[in-house]
Amino acid sequence: MTGNVWVVVPQACLLCGSSLVYLVGRLWKTRNHLLALLTALFFAMALGALVPVFKLARPGDQAAWGHFGPTGAFLRADPGALLVAGIALGLGTLVAIYSGCYLALDRRYETFYPLLLLLVAGLVGMVLAADLFNLYLFCELMSIAAYILVAFRRRLDTAIEAGFKYLMMGSVGTVAMLLGISFVYRGAGGLTLSQTAATPGQWTHAGLACLLVGLGIKSAIVPLHTWLPDAHGRAPSSVSAMLSGIVIQSAFYVLLKVSLGLGFAARDLGTLLIVLSLLGMVLGNVLALVQPHTKRLLAYSTIAQMGYVMLSIGVGLRHSIPAAIQAGFFLLLAHAVMKGLAFLCKGVCHFYCGATVIGQLRGTAARMPLVAVTFSLALAGLAGIPPLAGFAGKWFILTAGLRTADALVYFGLAVFLVSTLLALGYYLPLIGMLFAAQACEALETSEVSRIQVSPWMALPLAVLGCLVLAIGLYPQPWLNWAAAVGDYLGTLGR
Amino acid sequence: MNAETTWLVIILGAPLAAAALLSLMGARGARMAGWIAGLAAALSLVGTIALLPALQRGDTPALGFEWIPAMNIRLAVRLDWLTLSFLITEAAVALLAVVYSWGYHHRDEGTAYFYASLMLFAAGMSGTTLADDIFLFYVFWELMLVASYVLIAVWGEGERRTAVALKYFIFTHVGSLMVLVGLILLYNATGTGSFSAFRAGVTLAPALVRTVVTLFLVGFCVKMAIFPLHLWLPDAHTVAPMPVTIMLAAAMLSMGTYGILRFPMGIFTLAQMTPFAVPMMVTGIISELYGALMALAEDDIKRIIAYSSVSQMGYILFGLGTLTWNGVAGATLHVIYHGIVKALLFMCAGLIIRATKRRRIGQLGGLGGAMPVTAICTGVGALAIAGAPPFCIFISEWMIFSGGFHTARIGLSVLTVFGSLLTVAYALWMLGRIFFGTRPEGLTVGRLPRAMLVPTVLLAVLSLVAGLFPAPVFDWVARELPMLLGGAW
């Protein structure tokens, strides 16, 4: 065990934290607030531990920890992993604070918080892993935590159904991954990504195909997305924020890293991503148009937005334009903030007013101005309206894409533009609902009166709302961060 | 920071600051809201006028900061002669619309937000004309759309306001996206978003030039509501509350003209633009005739005036399409004069609707005796829009027609001149049906607030004065023309 120990500190924080939070929850009949605070503290510590790693990471010299060598197993802090892990930890901190109030709906505090920590621990480990063995283990940790969290409302049939569906499809993905890993081992005699790339052969190719399917299911790439609307639509909103915001994106990043690491030509991967993104953008946006449930709508919007990210990264890989990959990761970051915010806002409406259907959001502005404003910031940002975060992403994707002279890319961009138009068809009415004058009568509290939103929920909303504005108005620092990822994947693909 | 840049900051900053202040005040600010918005709009106008001497000295007041260095995008604003005509129209219209709102808008707890949105709308338009970087330009371009969408969706009149607002947003957003693609193609060609690079000249492959110009023309024509891209306009203008309609019709439509002058005509040369001359002229004529015919067929006063905008924008596109000095100068003059007259007509319509609670022309009549001031103002507006001398539009139409006759397409020009007969028809027909004849049973006339009457009278006087003394405005427009078509003039 050698290398830079800081790489493993976030993991340690999260894993120790999950046991500790569970113990505290079991031993003392404590209140929700304490556990939420404790969980947020562990997330923040892990995020803090990432800072030294981030400082160490330079092009060509990434901090790593573990057993090195041909049969080694280690974690390596590449820029993309740092970006995804950073987003996950940041979002995790806010979601933990948010749950300090929101979880009063579901109770069972002592199981929720440890699972949340395990989910992120698995996620961080998975993106940092530099070998397929660690990658598989952490991926399973993340997935299992996610299955349980989706079915957390165990008294609801729909939640159980969604969790079961997710479990079934996720397990198929897991099996495919395991099969793929064994093929790769058969072909290359090792599992570290840098080494296996050197020995391409039929076994490696077969392994790669299986891994692509497995990770494709985990990252809900159309046509392997069918579990997503159920899972993200039925999970508690705080969980959906994590799942939609960063979990599937982390699986997507791993898919990129593994494919390039196993010697999949960047050009072909790029083409594949562009073609798949077309399906995602169209299907996600069209189906979102007809959803009556707010959370399902947001879930389909995630499929569409992942399509934008895939298109951009696909363009970058196909034509080796780092700026396009950078744009993709910028949008990934912006999307995590905006979608996380949207789900959390929806959760507040559910918590205070029992709103689930879009029509029940009527009159939110009069009751909870903060929620209405931040929710519309998130939705307008997702719709790509300037000067919010989504618009900067749209601009970068277009600038990078139009630099090529490629019919497929142009077609992709045309589909992208048309689907952003389609998307206005559901974002704008949703914003309109929030600001509608008369409140919905079908709700438990039908009279329009000001509701005092708990500070536990108001704080994460305010922070994320400010971020949506900040990323849009001053994208430079975030762009630098994404640029490092673009460069890294560019070199990996070469 | 010298006096010029301070004024630039005030032009943009005053409405933005007012919007922020009003949103923060919320329901508490309802009483003060109108005054704050009026003050901000007035400051914006004063700032624009204060910068006139600097322009006349040959300066171009500018201000810029680093924004996104990695993409070579700057936060830059700049005032030149091309900007001025549009900026001054926009600032004046915004001020008048705010003053008109004092009388028109019923105060409730949302009043502060209403004025805040009006201010954002105004800031979006002045920012669009002042921006010196494509990113900033597009941000303001869309701010204009978002703010007007909010105004229509929340304060619109009638049950269909949400649907109409959505249609308006999506329709004009299609145009915006075309403009966006065009802007980014230019950005990729020059490697910078700054307009100064465009002023220095952009070299593009001929095929790319055609694509970019087409994208810009179609995109901006959506904003100008040129047939067949006008479908959003009649609904949006009818449903929007009157002050917003005034800003939409008198100021926002002209932003499309600004875009055409700034981008395709400002960047490319006469030779590169020539293939587009005939399509622009023909579309202009179709729009002119179609708008006028629809105005004749309509029954709702607001819709008549809305269709008249489609028709008038047709004149402007025709003028631009001639690619002659007279035609382009006439088109720019028409933007300013149309702003004055269209604001006047909508204000009159607002007065009539407020006084009688009716908006169908068939239910009105014989109002001349009961509301003489409104009748005279509407008369001035109708004569002016019909192009009768000595009102201002006579001059701009004259210029546009003479531009047409300077081209080889005499047939098209003759068609435009005869097309203007239709304008006379709908304008006088509307005037006659409302103010002359017998008054229908049960038509009562209510009292009108002074805040609504004063700006109306002011505009009526202005449309006469501008027609009698066109020299100063003509001078501004003449200064802008050397900036166009690669310095062809």
Could you describe the 3D structure shown?
The complex is a heterodimer of chains A (494) and B (489). Chain A has 19 helices and 3 strands. The longest helix of chain A is centred in the middle third of the chain and has 32 residues. In chain A, strand 2 and strand 3 form a beta hairpin. By secondary structure, chain A is mainly α. In chain A, helix 1 runs antiparallel to helix 2, helix 3 packs antiparallel against helix 18 and helix 13 packs antiparallel against helix 18. The radius of gyration of chain A is 21 Å and the shape is globular. Chain A has 2 domains: 203 residues, no CATH class; 229 residues, no CATH class. Chain B is an all-alpha fold and 489 residues long. Chain B has a domain of 218 residues. Helix content of chain B is 75%, strand content 3%. Chain B is built from 21 helices and 2 strands. Chain B has a two-stranded antiparallel ribbon with strand order 1-2. In chain B, a hairpin with a 4-residue loop joins strand 1 and strand 2. The mean pLDDT of chain B is 90. Chains A and B meet through helix 16, helix 17 and helix 19 of A and helix 6 and helix 7 of B.
Give the key terms.
heterodimer; A: 494 residues; mainly alpha; 2 domains; 3-stranded antiparallel sheet; 19 helices; globular; B: 489 residues; 21 helices; 2 strands; 75% helix
